Amino acid sequence: MSRDDEAARAWRRLAALTPARIALGRAGSGLPTREVLRFSLAHAQARDAVHAPLDVEAVRGAIAALGFETLVAASAAPDRATYLRRPDLGRRLDEASAAALAAAASDPVDLALVVADGLSARAVHEGAVPLLAALQPALAGAGLRLAPVVVATQSRVALGDAVGALLKARAVAVLIGERPGLSSPDSLGVYLTFGPRPGRTDAERNCLSNVRAAGLAPDLAAFKLSWLIDQALTRELTGVALKDESDRLIEGPAERQSLGR
Amino acid sequence: MSYRHVVGPRTFVFSDLAELMAKATPPRSGDRLAGLAAESAEECVAARWCLAEVPLAEILARPLIPYEADDVTRLILDTHDAAAFARIGHLTVGDFREFLLTAPSETLAAIAPGVTPEIAAAVSKIMRNQDLILVARKARVVTRLRNTIGLPGTMAVRLQPNHPSDDPAGIAAAILDGLAYGCGDACIGINPVSDSVQGLAGLLHLLSETIERFDIPTQGCVLTHVTTTLEAMNRGVPVDLVFQSIAGTQAANASFGVTLPLLREAHEAALGQRRGTLGDNVMYFETGQGSALSANAHHGIDQQTLEARAYAVARAFRPLLVNTVVGFIGPEYLYDGKEIIRAGLEDHFCGKLMGVPLGVDVCYTNHAEADQDDMDTLLTLLGTAGVTYVMGIPGADDVMLNYQSTSFHDQLYLREVTGLKRAPEFAAWLARMGLTDADGALRPGGGAPLLSGIAA
Fold first, then answer.
1. CA nearest B162 in A: which residue?
2. Is B298 in CB contact (< 8 Å) with chain A?
3. Residues of B in contact with A86 (CB under 8 A)
């Protein structure tokens, strides 16, 4: 084997150690053509994920098929271009949605669930229903009173505060499309906030990130989320004071019985 | 005091210097988000006309954020060099622009301690991109720890080998790849996922062992919170460079969990490590337009002026490296390629004019209206402007921070078209390792000398 072959083999072994784009080769100072195109494709997928509209009816239908009641809501950002420039508008409900949610609210509930487009409708299309399906048994087992699942558009995380407050929920969980990475256009984030009301800060939330088939799988994400929900409702807080220690339950099977209490 | 400018039948009135500077700022989404931007293109240019007539001495005399209210203002005024300022104190902002265009490098170095961030920002607002490039190119700032960064005709690269789970083998693989492309003279700098002291210690040991194994004239850094790095130093972990993100107001720094006394403590501790061989520039800072607004700590000041104030914080600690992360914060602050390019040139100019070794993380996120072509443009402009360093990230894709920056290949491209060399000690090491030829060009063979290094 030549020295060049040996080097190429060594680089292939190194490349297997990281998802980073190493050992790409070069054409002079530039990238090989296949790498230029591979990068362009990944960027195009991420861009499409940001700009593709949420298929509200399809998402709503799939969530209803799981047995959840559903509602829809829109933020005060009228379109994608405004949404991207004005995060403050994405955190507020538009007037019609606020009125509709207020009218739909009944008695106080334990948990409101919001499924929001955020920065990746694709993440919602692919990941929201599997996560809700995985979460459902734990919610039912715990006997939680649930508000209808709200499917929200042009939404930032903090829109959940307004939704949760109007639906008289003790806590709100927002399932939202995360800012797409070049290799993760389908990543869903989940933000849990106890005592939702407008003005809550990110320090008052707990977050599960990178929920997707190739990242934090829906089953595990649902397990962690149900643990966090249980803790939040029991201890009446979320945020920096509540650390995700659900791993201890995974390590200790005996304790796992407590899930869904 | 209000400012007025008459354009034909219209009189534009600006209630104070902060409003005047904000409205004179080339358009960007962050100032609109803050409600500070000019309401028309004409108002923006009227503000520039008006700003051009403001004496520098007046800017110095009217702090945008009161002395009593903000320790960054106090730092700026308490450390202001009146003798250096005397050479420019008689000028208006408009005169100052012309002074800068004609001044030689030595003059720029001499006035730097007299240039406040507000003065640098003000003049940048009436400059075109070519002015920002031309003046920055003449303003050289040289720093040293284990090599010499910022010499004329050179540009360094931070090798950024991030991994989504801080896996040491994955990070080491990316470091080898970057070294094989001749990157890493600014530093080898890891953004960790974990903020634990234990995780930090492991990565710092990995860096110091790699640097020692190959005898590389460079420095390592793990970009974690300054308090974590301080704790690591207390535990005897090898720390070359102390990193911290900083901003231009006391309140924004507080949102990062830092104060000026904390930075002083960290600076002293880093100096005490005595890990430099050629110099004692031991601090590394990152900044970016919009950070103060996102922390709700902007005091009604435009984001570019606040960014320049962050360089005043940096300057106080004689840093080895400072870089703006220009497109990272998102489209609500810099919307598209045009705004990112403009901001990158402004930040670089203001930093250099103030005597700060400014590098630029030429970057964008996937929700900004930008792509790699915009990065090529800004990178090329910054190479022309004499940028201190840029980032080298495998394939320009940071798999931990989820953004796109510049790659190992991009710096090769820039060196080929501009002739920019690496830090001399690092260039000599690459040649000694057989990775580059006498001209600094990569030799064929795919970094084989490094591979035999790890086998040994």
1. A20
2. no
3. 33, 332
**Per-residue pLDDT, A260:** 32
Tell me what pLDDT residue B194 has.
Answer: 79
- Three-class SS of residue B393? strand
* pLDDT confidence tier of residue A249, bands split at 50, 70 and 90: low
For residue B91, the enclosing domain spans 3-138
Q: Does A207 touch chain B (CB under 8 A)?
A: no
Give me the mean pLDDT over the B409-421 stretch.
98
Based on the fold, state whether residues B247 and B229 are members of the same structural domain.
Answer: yes
Q: Three-class SS of residue B345?
A: helix
For chain A, list the domains and their CATH numbers. 54-258 (3.40.50.11240)
pLDDT of B295: 87
Between chain A and chain B, the number of residue pairs with CB atoms below 8 A apart is 136
Q: Phi then psi for B262, rounded to 5 degrees?
A: -65, -40
- 3-state DSSP assignment of residue A131: helix
Let me know if residue B198 belongs to a domain.
yes
**Amino acid at the residue A79:** D
Alpha-carbon distance values, B236 to B168, B204, B211, B226 (Å): 20, 11, 18, 15
Per CB-CB distance under 8 Å, the chain B contacts of A26 are 181, 409, 412, 442
The answer to whether B170 contacts chain A (CB < 8 Å) is yes
How far apart, in Å, are the Cα atoms of B222 and each of A212, B306, B307, B392, B395?
Answer: 28, 26, 23, 15, 21
Q: Which residues contact B456 (CB under 8 A, 6 or more apart)?
A: none
Subunit contact B451:A7, Cβ cutoff 8 A = yes
Q: Which of B138, B161, B188 is the last residue of a domain?
A: B138
